[in-house]
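@channel sequence for tomorrow's demo:
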Amino acid sequence: MEALVFDGKTLTLKYDPKYPMPQLVNDDDVIVKVEYSGVCGTDLHIIQGEFPASKERPLPLGHEFSGTVHEVGKAAIFKKGQKVVVDPNRACALCSFCRAGNYQYCLTAGINSTVGIWRDGGWARYVRVPQDQVYALPPQITTEQAGLCEPYSCVSHGFDRASPLPVGSKILIVGAGIIGNLWVTTLHHHGHRDVTVSEMNTARLDIVKKLDTGFRLVTPDVLAAEKELYDVIIDCTGVGKVMEMSFNYLRHGGKYVLFGCCPPAHQASMNPYQIYDKELTIIGVKINPFSFPKAIGWLQAMGSRYLDYEKLGVQTFKLSEYEQALQHLKAGTISKAIFKID
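structure tokens (generated this afternoon):
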């Protein structure tokens, strides 16, 4: 089968038209025929050697994917042909974190066993996963829309962590890549209107305009010049220095949601007195513990108003076109690349 394979030892990607087809191993296994598989910012960090991933053997990355059931183990509840989406993360179900419902803190599972980072992922025509990580899609959701389910599940977790977010709050979104755009759609869908989006790449701001939310769109130099303060700042950049600068834009009692995944080596300096004096809250958001059902509900409620690939700046590519996809992402001419695997 075709696959896009990452070698963690050499930090190289290779299109392989003859990667081994997965086989059923356990009775609860499901083999998914992948239709849509996204390129995440974390994938880019992995490819650049900035984020930990498997080095045991070359394997397909891809932890955001949807498709249909191709084959199931004898104990699986799914049926061949069902539309499904896969949660790449799971609990170990044994440690105190997982048993408390917080598998994002697990030292062996969670982000440490992610499909598409530590195990064969969705940058392939087929992938094998345990059935407890598979979710059936309702009829109203297409596999194309479900290609965004995993990032929306992370936004859902972030939304819960940041809550309450009263409508009328003055909110700043920093970074207008795909995650920033998903936050734009989420906040608008939940009734927020006093939202500013900051992005240094004006081509990305042009993409946000297509979402027709009426949110204010600015470049970082405007923020620095006007010195406006915000109730909530949602940092979607994954750049430590951005937090260092943006943290100063919080009002008294404000919340800083550190959503973008920074590489481990990034640093940010801030004034502890400011945190004390303003009673500021810093909120970290890590993956998507048990938030897939909410994300599926969001997709069902949002529909084509918010999930249109063109309006979101999403472009699809064949697996063999991966170099072109990465070039577009690095240039910032698109917000997200998704592999469409026919």
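heads up for whoever presents: The radius of gyration is 20 Å.
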